[in-house]
Amino acid sequence: MAENDNNTQEQQAPQFAIQRVYLKDASFEAPNSPKVFTKQWQPEINLDMNTATTTLDNGVFEVVLTLTVTAKNDSDTAFLVEVQQAGIFTVTGLGEAELHHTLGAFCPSILFPYAREAIDNMVNKGSFPALMLSPVNFDALYAQQMQQQAQATEEAPQH
C-alpha cells in the first residue's frame, strides 16, 4: 500500500520540461531604404509583445511569443521586424492558477532571449545598428494583466 502512496505523490509532483524551442515566423521590412541610410540615425523604437498558448496534448502546450519592433527615424519607418518565437512545454502537476502563470510568464521569459537574438540578427542583416532589446519582466507584466482583468470583472455591470 505504501507503494501506491508513492506513485500518487510522484504523479502529483509538479513537472516542467522544455520539449522544443523554435522560430515559428519571422519577417523584416525596410520600406524606406536606401533613403533611410542617408539620414542621421536617431531612431524611435517601439516594441509590441503578445503571447498565445495552445494545448497540444494533456500537459503539453505550445507557447508563442510575438515581438514586433518598429523603428522610425525622422518620422520615416526605418524598419519593421516581427518574430514569433515558440516553444513546446510539458507542464503537469500544477493547479490552474500556477499553470496559467507558468504559461503566461515563465515560458515567455524562456523564449524572449531567442526572439531577441533573432530580431538583432535580422536588424544587422538589414544594415542597421545592433538592436539589443532590454530584458522584460514577464512576471510583472503577467501580474499587471491579471490586475486589469480583475478590475474589468469588478467594473462589469452585474445582472
Automatic annotation (TrEMBL):
Homotetramer, a dimer of dimers. One homotetramer interacts with 1 SecA dimer. InterPro entries: SecB, SecB-like_sf. PANTHER family: PROTEIN-EXPORT PROTEIN SECB, PTHR36918. Belongs to the SecB family. Its main location: cytoplasm. One of the proteins required for the normal export of preproteins out of the cell cytoplasm. It is a molecular chaperone that binds to a subset of precursor proteins, maintaining them in a translocation-competent state. It also specifically binds to its receptor SecA. Keywords: Chaperone, Cytoplasm, Protein transport, Translocation, Transport. NCBIfam families: PRK05751.1-3 (NF004392), PRK05751.1-4 (NF004393), secB (TIGR00809). It is found in: Cytoplasm. This is Protein-export protein SecB. The gene is secB.
